[in-house]
Amino acid sequence: MALDPLDPVALAQALVRCPSVTPAEAGTLDLLEGVLRPAGFACHRLTMTEPGTPDVDNLYARWGTAAPNLCFAGHVDVVPPGPDAAWRHPPFAGVISDGALYGRGAVDMKGAVACFLAAALAHVRHNPSNGSLSFLITCDEEGPSINGTVKVLQWLADRGEKLDACLVGEPTNPGILGEEIKIGRRGSLNGVLVVQGRQGHAAYPDLAENPVPKLARIIDRLSTTPLDQGNADFQPSSLQVTVISAPNTATNVIPGEARALFNIRYNTHWTRPKLEAHVRTLAQHAADELGARFSLSFSGTGDVFLTQAGPLVDTMQAAVRTV
Questions:
Q1: Annotated catalytic, 233?
Q2: What does the pLDDT profile of the chain (323 residues) look like in tens digits?
Q3: Which of 141, 142, 209, 276 is catalytic?
Q4: Residue 244 forms beta bridges with which residues?
Q5: What is the sign of the dihedral through the CA atoms of 275, 277, 282 and 283?
Q6: Most buried in the list 65, 71, 82, 174, measured by CB within 10 Å?
Q7: Which residues contact 124 (CB under 8 A, 6 or more apart)?
Q8: What span, in angstroms and rounded, lies between the C-alpha atoms of 188 and 142?
Q9: Annotated catalytic residue within 77, 140, 142, 209
Q10: pTM: predicted TM-score of the whole model, two decimal places
Q11: Spatial separation of the C-alpha atoms in residues 186 and 232, rounded to whole Å
């Protein structure tokens, strides 16, 4: 049965059924282009590259040439689903059960992309060209975020194209649909902490230096020390340890190093340089107490920002209060 491009549920199901784990396009952009191009959108598939990172396929599509240009921005890549057995329904089956769509990306954010798509196509079908509608869709949001939106924006700038307004479909509603439109974002900072030790046999720990307990104590310090108390616009900043590993496959060998990966979502209390320096100081104090040798490196996927609330926010809040 042909896909109805005005049906956001069917579109969302079709997108969920594409196993687009970062940075794989996995058919998602093909699907979007196949719906947008017949509706009169000029489509550009943009493969962006950077040494040391995977190539990423992106899509920019525009209907109309005049200003203003309202852009729907988003991503169709998803994080790995983990074991299928942990899911009520298979993660890429797009099953609807008890009125809910199940699948990786249903909320973040293939469902929003589907709603964008259906709304835009309904508009262009029944309205003359007055300004422009565009889509900026990447497969690099859940990963390094290097070969995605930032590079597409630079490509647009080089062409002399301007986005006058942008709506991003990240899930933002705490309780009910339409409750909240965010006008800012927290910063995202990734860290890699490596604690050095000395490899040796587990039977002779006095001849080795085990880095694992020292790593555990340092990351406990980092993850339990409050960064701030939040503010009127953002919740408290949070450091979450996401991976702990050691280059070791034997249970009777003390490893020569141990590492942890962590992510910090931070508010306007911080800038990235200030936060990096603060976390490095916390780690150094903990390491000094333990006599640990360590290295710490950072990478980021976007700094914090907050824009002034405008008329749209006031209108939206008034509408929600009447629901």
A1: no
A2: 578 889 999 999 999 999 999 999 999 999 999 999 999 999 999 999 999 899 999 999 999 999 999 999 999 999 999 999 999 999 999 999 999 999 999 999 999 999 999 999 999 998 877 899 999 999 999 988 899 999 999 999 999 999 998 888 888 777 776 677 778 889 999 999 999 999 999 999 999 999 999 999 999 999 999 999 999 989 999 999 999 999 999 999 999 999 999 999 999 999 999 999 999 999 999 999 999 999 999 998 788 989 877 766 666 556 555 44
A3: 141
A4: 260
A5: positive
A6: 71
A7: 39, 40, 41, 63, 133
A8: 11
A9: 77
A10: 0.79
A11: 13
Task: Respond yes or no: is residue 170 known to be catalytic.
Answer: no
For residue 264, what is the enclosing H or E element?
strand 257-266
- List the alpha helices (DSSP H) in 105-179: 111-126, 149-159
**Token code pair at residue 278:** 């603060």
List, in sequence order, every residue forming a beta bridge with 269; answer none if it has no partner. Answer: none
By DSSP bridging, strand 95-97 and strand 184-185 are unpaired
**Residue 121: exposed, middle, or buried by beta-carbon count in 10 A (0-12, 13-18, 19+)?**
buried
